[in-house]
Design goal:
The chain is elongated and about 80 Å long. With 196 residues, it is α+β, with helices and mostly antiparallel strands. The protein contains three helices and five strands. Strands 1-2-3-4-5 form a five-stranded antiparallel β-sheet. It has one domain. Helices cover 39% and strands 23% of the residues.
Length: 196
């Protein structure tokens, strides 16, 4: 009986030792990679901001703020772009969970009058060659100067003013949903009800 206990105890000690070493190794790797991953993500967002707003000489990242939609259900991040101290546009990080592949995150750019300047998909799992076309110029050009307060931010099949990407209507609708959420938060912020 004592031999049986010793026979089980030795492999158990080895397994515990391996688990402890693995946990410390994973913790160490996470610690040394966490900052570079965060920096890379911040750089990706900063590049997206630069793509969707007018020229700026401030640091939109340093001035970011949280804004909410009118119904207070969604919190988004807004990055103001200023030239010579004057606000000329904003970028809003927005999202939707209604894409064909699930969640899509965008950086949406708005001029100060509320018209759309541009947008950039920053993450998503849409079908390559179909749903991913929502981030191509042919689709995006429709939004330059588009004013959601005066035009209908829906695809034509739904009575709107936007042509969907062929064979990717679900992805097109998802992008419009994310832009609508960003516009709602922008309008709510401008009314003075969204700042936290």
């Amino acid at each position: 009986m004592a031999r049986k206990k010793q026979g089980i105890l030795q492999p158990l000690i080895v397994l515990v030792g391996i688990a402890v070493i693995s946990a410390f190794t994973l913790g160490y790797v996470r610690q040394i990679t966490e900052e570079p991953i965060k920096r890379a993500k911040d750089n990706q967002e900063l590049a997206a901001i630069a793509e969707v707003v007018n020229e700026f000489d401030n640091n939109p990242f340093a001035e970011k703020m949280t804004i909410t939609t009118a119904n207070k259900k969604h919190k988004l991040t807004m990055y103001p772009a200023r030239q010579n101290g004057v606000l000329n546009s904003v970028a809003i990080k927005t999202y939707t969970n209604t894409g064909f592949g699930g969640r899509i995150e965008l950086m949406a750019g708005f001029n100060v009058d509320g018209s759309i300047k541009n947008f950039k998909v920053i993450s998503g799992n849409e079908t390559p060659g179909l749903g991913t076309k929502v981030d191509e110029p042919r689709f995006k050009e429709q939004f330059h100067g588009f004013y959601p307060g005066r035009q209908v931010l829906k695809v034509r099949q739904d009575g709107g003013d936007i042509d969907a990407v062929t064979a990717a209507t679900i992805s097109s609708r998802a992008v419009l949903k994310a832009l609508e959420r960003a516009y709602d938060a922008f309008r709510n912020f401008n009314s003075g009800k969204s700042n936290e």
